[in-house]
């Protein structure tokens, strides 16, 4: 098994344990003496950057921001993670909302936030910083509350992508959350996989930086995953966060690439028992942690540490993190012991941003920050929550209602199945089922899968695949699945 929290302490390089002695005052995090240090803070593409060098880059970005009048929302556009990170730091120092873009944001996302200024950061030197454009129509600074400092974009898995206002209080609550700390022998070193436009970025980068740790930017799986072991050993990476689909791919194909990272977090999609079992068969001894949390709640709200006695059934999403409170509401006409999950507390963001202004606040009747997730959960014997789908997981197939989440859950129970996704367009509904390559042509495997699917609907077609395409966020790309399916039909015709 992975590292034991009974024998190790949460320790930083100067001997402090846990968050003891850490100062998460916002001003100290972004202005403190740490930014004068020659110690390495950031590693990207083989180059090491000290706190001081990152600070110099941020200062040059802040100068560009300061040269413009009435700037509230700054979009920092950079192909590098360092440029996005330094841009966030600079924007916060200038009292602005930081929106980082590594090229993944489209016009619809920009319309949500309506940036006053777009700054491009080309490379890692101050000379590469330039004012790309500023808005023709200036909005008053008061259009967004002062406490908003950043924006989360939802994945769009339940519809179009939404912009969520993240406050400094949200990030400070994340920084202070002891339930997301790991034992270390020195400074915390985080392996960063998340892109700057997704909420995993806060965990990968800023939570580590707030604890005076270091960040190692990991190459994309499709670029050079073979560099991961060398980076892990050289810098002593303590933890990594990987989307469940990416983790499944690595465990299946290249388990040695993650063997030296003691703590592996999974989120964004359901973590499958089959992935965990495969990891143990590959003799991986990492501690695996399943995280849950909507983008509307900063990053994560629940966690579950996996143990070797998990052999069947869905992996729970666990219990609330420090700073998070849960409420279980009546989901309506369901009679399967399920509840809708509501989240309260300082991790809940302020609300949605539309057309450059705050449009919806997340709050309960008593005014406390609260968010209705729309997710349906069950409570297991240990008191942990188990994800059971969404309130809107009912789809219509040939006029009949089908619970797509229940269909996926029942298919994944089959021993040959690694994962399942139900995808629907205007004319067709498919159950895409991921199996091993040799089972793609195994008629008996297909028959067993189809027999389960037909219990829900004879009109849902089964499509066997040996891999799921993923988006830059690491979530499964269902649009690409459908496109590949119809492209195959055209080839066969």
TrEMBL record:
GO terms for molecular function: phosphopantetheine binding. One of its GO terms (cellular component) is cytoplasm. One of its GO terms (biological process) is amino acid activation for nonribosomal peptide biosynthetic process. It holds the Pfam family AMP-binding. Gene3D superfamilies: 3.30.300.30, N-terminal domain of ligase-like. It comes from the Bacteria. InterPro entries: AMP-bd_C_sf, AMP-dep_synth/lig_dom, ANL_N_sf. Residues 140-352 form the AMP-dependent synthetase/ligase domain. This is AMP-dependent synthetase/ligase domain-containing protein.
